[in-house]
């Protein structure tokens, strides 16, 4: 029988491979078919639904894969029409194949799933522990979010700025440093994820922003009034609604 010291020695020296997420596999497979000519320039790719069935993965994973390919210049996503292979291949296509994604890159839906796990509880704790100053700050940020809902909608990035500040203020108000740090890290991941940002740009609109603002109203009011249960449910509803809006974006239903 191995001793604890021997087990720890094996663990410390063993290289654990990073998991290959499904959408990464799809990225590389479609990329290979484009580069070897199976999908020629200008070719319309199968629909999201057909690709989902072909690769036996969710449509969300297919969507993330296509976003990666678009960002790197392999495909052109045309809302209401479909996904087409670009007429000119990116420079990367003429060099030895290398993964388009770094191991540390996170998928947009992975980030949202983790936010759904953490932020509702964060909101509940904030309702119990937020200081008067923090509650006033939440009121101010929520009011600022309403003001940027204008015909000049999000031209200067105000929507995203106030949204981030409000959620991070909730994290800072929860009274748990570990939870605060985890939530802040998730927001940094989303900010640095080109896939997440591209998805966000595609689904967001003045109409969606109005819906999001009303969702924020529910949990902000609950936190300010000290209602932990309503704060938790309000935040959960908001995050689930974001995922639903991204998944049901009409531009992807061609």
From TrEMBL:
InterPro entries named among the record's database cross-references: GntR_C (IPR011711), TF_FadR/GntR_C (IPR008920), Tscrpt_reg_HTH_GntR (IPR000524), WH-like_DNA-bd_sf (IPR036388), WH_DNA-bd_sf (IPR036390)
Lineage: Bacteria, Pseudomonadati, Pseudomonadota, Betaproteobacteria, Burkholderiales
One annotated GO molecular function: DNA binding
Name of the protein this chain belongs to: FadR family transcriptional regulator
PROSITE patterns: HTH_GNTR
Keywords: DNA-binding, Transcription, Transcription regulation
Signal peptide feature range: none
Coiled coil: none
Residue ranges of every copy of the HTH gntR-type domain listed in the record: 20-88
